[in-house]
Amino acid sequence: MSGADPRPLFEVLEPPPGGLTRLRARIGRERRRRVRRWSLAMAAAALALAALTAPLLPRGDVGPWAPGASDVDVLALQVGLGEPPAETVSIRPDLRRRYAVREVPTTDERVVFFMVGSR
Fold this sequence. Notes:
Blueprint: H1 19-53, H2 74-79, E1 99-104, E2 113-118
Antiparallel strand pairs: 1-2
């Protein structure tokens, strides 16, 4: 093989008229279709997750605690305009057969600690 071959090693091909435009449009459609599929799949997964976890969420009244200290205006207590409740923690009367509360003594009078039992 002496000298340069006048023929190129690879033939340069030109796309047909409008071919590149059609190719780009087809690629764009495929991407949009793929994004749409993933969006629908993620929405379905989020809906399924919400449906499965909704029963596990707590309802409005989750504890056996009776209204008492929580009903007292805390700001009025801090300013000295209100009387503290007689019981710090109490159980609703209809739940007293299932729950029990006992105050545990502490060395600091500012700390209140309770032990709660339930059946």
